[in-house]
Amino acid sequence: MRTPLSGMILLCSAAALLAGCKSASNVRITRDGPQQEQAAARSEPIFYNGKTYRLDFSPRGQGVYDMAVSGMGPKQQKDAEAVATSSLGYFACPDGQRGKLQTAPAYADAKWRMQAKCG
After folding, report:
1. How much is the CA Rg of the chain, to the nearest whole Å?
2. CA triplet 37, 113, 96: central angle to 5 degrees?
3. Which of 6, 33, 34, 91 is 20 to 30 A from 74 via CA?
């Protein structure tokens, strides 16, 4: 037997469930192609080969990032490249992509500077 109170409880429960639903949708249609969002500028400590270095990167446009690795010496170009490309892949690239250098690294003011993009 149903009482008016049980009907009211059922109605309130249904209303609470519906109120919790989000009305806006973030669905993208796949024919639009992949969404290209660039990560915001950031500075991160990077632990590499037993030492901590500083990576600074910021979007330049068209998927390219300005990158700077500090804490390495002028003879550590390969290390700076490895830190920059792998870190860009981790912080900014879609799953499975690594960073690829777009310019040759240059050492100035105690920083390795280069440009890279996902790919």
Report:
1. 25
2. 40
3. 91
3-class secondary-structure state, position 89: helix
Which tokens hold the place of 89? 């892949």
Tokens describing residue 114: 């280069």
Predicted TM-score (pTM) above 0.70 = no
Residue 28 placed within a domain: no
Reported as a single tens digit per residue, the pLDDT across 48-88 is 999 999 999 999 989 899 999 999 999 999 999 999 999 99
Q: Is residue 16 part of a domain?
A: no
Q: Is residue 11 part of a domain?
A: no
In a domain, 64, yes or no: yes
- 84 Rama sector, left if φ>0, alpha if ψ -120 to 50, beta otherwise: alpha
Tell me the residue ranges of DSSP E strands in 1-119. 42-48, 51-61, 64-70, 99-101, 106-108, 111-118
> What domain range includes position 84?
42-118
- Kindly tell me the sign of the dihedral angle through the C-alpha atoms of 45, 47, 49, 50: positive
